[in-house]
Amino acid sequence: MPATVKFRGSVREVEAGTRVDEVLAMLGLSRESVVARVGSRLVTEDYRLRDGDVLELIHAISGG
Amino acid sequence: MRCTKCGRRAVINLRAHRLALCERHFVERFLEVVERAIRRYSLMSRSSRVLVAVSGGKDSLALWDALTELGYRADGLYIDLGIRRQNYSRISKEKAEAFAEQRGLRLRVFNLKEEHGFAVPELRRGSREVCSVCGIVKRHVMNRVALEGSYHVLATGHNLDDEASVLLSNLLRWNLELLARQGPRAEAWHPKLLPKVKPLCLLTEKETATYALVRGIDYVYELECPFSAGATSIAMKEALNRIEEHSPGTKLYFYTQFLRHRTAFAGERPSAEAVECKNCGLPASGEVCSFCRLLLKSRLRGEKGDN
After folding, report:
1. Nearest-CA residue of chain A relative to B15?
2. Does residue B128 or residue B292 have the better pLDDT?
3. Residues of B in Cβ contact (< 8 Å) with A62
4. Which residues contact B285 (CB under 8 A, 6 or more apart)?
5. How many CB atoms lie within 10 A of CB A2?
6. Minimal Cα–Cα distance from A22 to chain B, Å?
7. What is the CATH number of domain A3-59?
8. B246 CA: distance to closest CA in chain A (Å)
9. CA A21 remoteness from chain centre
10. CA B154 from chain center: how many Å?
11. Residues 7-36 of A with CB under 8 A from B
């Protein structure tokens, strides 16, 4: 079972074993601009996604 | 990744400081940095009555939470700007009210439409950006409420990314007047004004978001102000984050070194005249303040803009 990545309303699947920083690179995101959460746990960019994990990327940048 | 201090699982990697921290040590450090900014830049004292401007977002609620944790006497002010798109104002207000209620804190709510008959989108005039109108409204209301409530200082949730992006923007335009004004503490230049302070100025936006999440603060994070799309500040922040990605610590160095050297711009600041608005009595640069001018023009137009 792959892992799921949620970011700003979009959902995609990635292979289990993918690291959070690899997901960020795929999405063209800076690690400075998002907080990564798997379930209720905040994780660092070296976290390797497991089968069935739901990774939520919370956008930290606001403007105005 | 493991916490540099205790070996527990880390929740954040602070590359700028070569530190990975667990929840407990991250919160400890966050509060230390807020206190450090308060002391280093003389933002407030223990006896200060503080009014925190809260929007329902991560920064202002994290600031209110941190000041309370550090033992400062801080009330909140929520300004209902009347932005109906995506229920933005309603949802933001609910978050601010829930935060205050859960912690037994005092939240003052100022409803612009009820007080003056116009919401922010209706005050927008022609090509003038909503963000600019919003800034005028917020500055006026914050000052008025703080003055009426006999507070000593007004605190906002501006973080390092906000400050560094404004600095970059001012430098790219060589706006010497704005450079002379920028800093974590804006002094009151009139007896009817309060000092404005930014205790989160040494913490990144990612740190304030992480603090809010670790502390269980329910903030507006899936919703952005509908008028902020395409804002210049976001482009500046993204540019700085790309540099930060390559050279961790650049944002902090950029801002703190500016603060060390900003006296170089001091002569660029025009001396402010102590004039009071003939309409509301608050300080103004002319006969009528910017806020009252907006209201008068909107009344003349009878505008009911795009909300």
Report:
1. A32
2. B292
3. 57-59, 205, 224-225, 228, 234
4. B272, B273, B275
5. 15
6. 14
7. 3.10.20.30
8. 10
9. 8
10. 10
11. 8-9, 30-35
Residue in B5, A30, B251, B19 with CA at minimum distance from that of residue A20: A30
Token pair in block for residue A19:
């690291």
A44 and B244 within 8 Å at the Cβ level: the answer is no
Separation in Å, CA of B214 to nearest CA in chain A: 8
Asked if B100 and B280 count as a contact pair (C-beta separation under 8 A), the reply is: no
β-bridge mates for residue B172, sequence order: none
Interface pTM (ipTM) of the complex? 0.95
| Residue of B25, B133, B238, B246 best to disrupt the A interface, most CBs of A under 10 A | B238
If residue B179 lies in a helix (H) or strand (E), which one and from where to where?
A: helix B176-181
* Chain A positions in Cβ-Cβ contact with residue B234 (cut-off 8 Å): 61-63
Q: What are chain B's domains? A: 30-273 (3.40.50.620)
- The rounded distance, in Å, linking the Cα atoms of B118 and B188 is 28
Q: Which two tokens mark B35?
A: 């206190």
Q: What is the pLDDT of residues B7-64, one digit of tens each?
A: 999 999 999 999 999 999 999 999 999 999 999 999 999 999 999 999 999 999 999 9
Which residues in A lie closer than 8 A to residue B250 (C-beta atoms)?
none
pLDDT at residue B126 is higher than 70: no
The shortest CB-CB distance from A32 to any of B57, B208, B245 is to: B245
The fraction of chain B above a pLDDT of 70, given in percent, is 94
Residue B288 neighbours by CB distance under 10 Å: 17
How much is the mean pLDDT over chain B?
91
